[in-house]
């Protein structure tokens, strides 16, 4: 298993390098360092001298990928790509284009993101699995049909509808919780109740239908018929056998979302004014702050790879037939 983990980590480096290079290329295809300087300094009455000073202070006065003015290895190292992108492999996020420390911003903003993402993930997973098992228990009945119809309806409605409708109904008309904002400590709960509830409800449709499909596939297998023949009740069959044997695909879907727990929800954080990493990324894109964008893309890619490794490792816990060293 240790050799497998080392092998997957080594595989991650070329992937991260490719993601890094692609992000760099896409960003600078749209923006030049002069465009970035104008964005930060303002679009009116900006002299070339002011833009040159801004670029020099932040290291954007160098060549993008290859510096012909240098000699030897400096041709590749004395570039914007080397200074701004490769340092991420040491988790040195540097400074934003407006001078803020990106690492400190991430440490501060990750807690609001986790506060909203972890409850949505845990409660949503339990609700989806429970609802799916309920439909499978009453399969081929009106209860199952009604559940499927409800899932399809929930899936067909945009998440923006739930956000705007929830803010209007619960926040404005009923005035039970604030519409937007955030504060630290236990007082943050009142700001998180509505976005967490919306995140759970909006995900019931797709999640429950997927788990229902998994459970229906397991129900039709021979071991389930054998369990029934031994006298086990349908409830015992579902929870002791079907749920257990469906854990591998469940883990695949659950562990891979680990990056989203840290990165936060882009839409929810933006609409509810939660100062997490999701809104941080949106603000950076709008401000065309390449330093923050590249840091968040790299961090998301790293966490996604970590999620894949954890998924493979978790297989050995639920299925003893899986051996990672083979």
Task: Give me some keywords for this one.
326 residues, globular, mainly alpha, 72% helix, 2 domains, MetI-like fold
Description of the molecule:
With 326 residues, the chain is mostly helical. The protein has two domains: 89 residues, no CATH class; 215 residues, MetI-like (MetI-like fold, Orthogonal Bundle). Helix content is 72%, strand content 0%. Helix 15 packs antiparallel against helix 16. It starts with a helix and ends in an 8-residue tail after the last helix. The model has no long low-confidence stretch (mean pLDDT 85).
Summarize the structure.
This protein has 326 residues and is mostly helical. The chain has two domains: 2-90, no CATH class; 104-318, MetI-like (MetI-like fold). It has helices spanning 2-30, 33-41, 48-58, 74-77, 80-84, 102-137, 142-156, 159-173, 189-219, 222-229, 234-245, 247-255, 258-263, 266-272, 277-286, 290-318.
The tally of beta strands, per DSSP, is 0
CATH class of the largest domain: Mainly Alpha
The shape, in one word, is: globular
Number of domains: 2
**What percentage of the residues does DSSP assign to strands (E)?**
under 5%
Structural class: mainly alpha
Count up the helices.
16
User: What is the second-level CATH architecture of the largest domain?
Assistant: Orthogonal Bundle
Overall residue-averaged pLDDT value: 85
Task: Report low-confidence residues grouped into runs of 5 or more.
Answer: none
CATH topology of the largest domain: MetI-like fold
Radius of gyration (Å): 25 Å
Report how far apart the termini are.
9 Å
The percent of residues in helical segments reads over 70%
> What series of H and E elements makes up the topology?
HHHHHHHHHHHHHHHH
């Amino acid at each position: 298993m240790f050799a497998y983990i080392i092998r997957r980590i080594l595989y991650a480096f070329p992937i991260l390098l490719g993601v890094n290079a692609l992000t760099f290329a896409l960003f600078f295809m749209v923006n030049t360092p002069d465009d970035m300087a104008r964005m930060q300094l303002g679009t009116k009455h900006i002299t070339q001298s002011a833009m040159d000073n801004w670029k020099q202070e932040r290291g954007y006065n160098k060549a993008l990928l290859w510096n012909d003015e240098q000699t030897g290895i400096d041709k590749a190292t004395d570039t914007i790509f080397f200074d701004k992108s490769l340092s991420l492999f040491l988790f040195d996020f540097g400074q934003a284009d407006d001078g803020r420390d990106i690492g400190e911003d991430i440490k501060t903003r990750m807690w609001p993101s986790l506060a909203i993402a972890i409850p949505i993930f845990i409660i949503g997973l339990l609700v989806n699995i429970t609802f799916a098992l309920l439909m499978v228990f009453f399969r081929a009945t009106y209860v199952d049909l009604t559940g499927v119809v409800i899932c399809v309806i929930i899936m067909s409605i945009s998440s923006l509808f739930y956000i705007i409708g929830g803010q209007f109904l619960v926040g404005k008309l009923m005035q039970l919780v604030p519409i937007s904002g955030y504060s630290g400590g236990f007082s943050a709960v009142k700001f998180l109740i509505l976005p967490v509830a919306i995140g759970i409800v909006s995900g019931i449709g797709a999640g429950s239908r997927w788990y229902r499909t998994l459970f229906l596939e397991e129900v039709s297998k021979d071991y389930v018929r054998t369990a029934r023949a031994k006298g086990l009740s349908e409830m015992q069959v579902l929870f002791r056998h079907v749920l257990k044997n469906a854990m591998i695909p469940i883990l695949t879907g659950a562990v891979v979302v680990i990056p989203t727990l840290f990165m936060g929800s882009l839409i929810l954080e933006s609409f509810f004014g939660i100062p997490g990493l999701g809104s941080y990324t949106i603000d950076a894109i709008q401000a065309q702050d390449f330093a923050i964008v590249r840091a968040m893309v790299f961090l998301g890619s790293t966490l996604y790879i970590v999620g894949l490794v954890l998924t493979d490792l978790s297989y050995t816990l639920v299925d003893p037939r899986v051996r990672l060293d083979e």
